[in-house]
Each structure stands twice: as C-alpha cells, then as structure tokens.
Design goal:
Layout: H1 8-33, H2 42-49, E1 63-65, H3 79-99, E2 106-112, E3 116-121, H4 124-128, H5 133-147, E4 156-161, H6 181-185
Parallel strand pairs: 3-4
Antiparallel strand pairs: 1-2, 2-3
Length: about 190
C-alpha cells in the first residue's frame, strides 16, 4: 500500500474553505429562517397596547396620587387636597393595619380615574410567603375588604411588588390584572 502525502498548505486551504462554507450557510439560514420563528402573541400585544404605568409622565393627568411622603406634601391645600389627604390617611391606615401581621411595608399608593387603586408593597410579601392558595386568597381578599369601606369609588385593586407588576406573590392567585369585588366575595 502506498500512502499519499498531502502538504500542510492543502490542509490549511481545506479547513479555510470548510469554515467559510459553514459561515456562509449559517448567515443564509439565519436570514431565511428569521421570519419563520417569529410568533404573534395576544399577551404581548395586550401589554404593548396598555397605557403606561401610573405615575409616569403620560398618565400624570389621569392618575391621582394618593400616597405622598410627609416632607413632599405642599402647604398650599384647598378642599380637594384636604379630601384626598383624608382619603390618603384612611387608605394608608387600613393597608398598614392589615399588612402589619405579614410584616410588609406600603411603598406607594395610586388611584386612577377608573377607580383602580394601585398598591405598591415591599418585596417581603413575595419573599416570605409560605402559604397555600387559600392563604394567598385570604390576603388579597382581606386587603380589598379593608380598603373598600374607606375609599369611595374603588372599583378594583392592582397589587405591585417593589414597583413592578407580578403574576403572583405566592404562586397560586393571578394578580397580573386588577382584582375586583369578586375576589372579596369568594371568601
């Protein structure tokens, strides 16, 4: 048997051609298949069509901020601001009393024109929750029931954790959308 000896230069050219062919085919397949792997999602479209979060520049006119830090409250107040301050105090007190047993802080509180109250709670709620679905339902419904009598015009409750929307804080009940009276009637 006779062995054919190839040169190192021929080996280098072969490897270069192989790598170039791979790179070219990779690029062509990317551009050809890019559109085939895109998908439409109703969930993504819904999020994109939602108005911006409360407190943002786009919604400043549509949102009444109920919760303010004590040093940011202005001294020039008329009857409307006095009414909102009393609403603020009542809502804040009821939320703090209810959430005290769970060692959760109230970070912020908003209410939009549609009567949806946005409650921003600290991350301890999600981090320390160890209950089941009924315990999670009791916390949400109890929170709604504690706020409903003191806030006239309340239509729904939206719970935020550390300023962000979340699907759930315990893994059982969906809180990604505002929660209405039906949750309080379930218990």
């Amino acid at each position: 048997m006779r062995r054919v000896k190839r040169s190192n230069k021929a080996d280098g050219v072969f490897i270069f051609v192989l790598i170039a062919t791979f790179a070219v085919s990779l690029g062509i397949s990317y551009f050809y298949l890019k559109g085939k792997f895109e998908f439409d999602s109703a969930f993504i479209e819904e999020i994109a069509s939602r108005p911006s979060k409360p407190g943002s520049k786009e919604q400043k006119e549509d949102t009444r901020r109920l919760y303010e830090l004590k040093d940011t409250v202005s001294k020039d107040s008329d009857e409307t601001e006095a009414a909102e301050s009393s609403l603020l105090a009542a809502a804040e007190d009821s939320i703090r009393k209810y959430m005290k047993t769970y060692e959760v802080r109230l970070l912020d509180l908003y209410m939009d024109r549609e009567g949806i109250m946005y409650i921003d709670l600290s991350g301890e709620l999600k981090k320390n929750f160890r209950g089941d679905a009924s315990e999670e339902l009791n916390i949400i419904a109890g929170l709604y029931k504690s706020i409903e009598p003191v806030v006239p015009g309340l239509t729904a409750l939206k719970i935020l954790i550390e300023g962000h929307e979340t699907d759930t804080f315990g893994g059982h009940i969906d809180i990604s959308k505002p929660i209405g009276k039906e949750i309080a009637e379930d218990i």
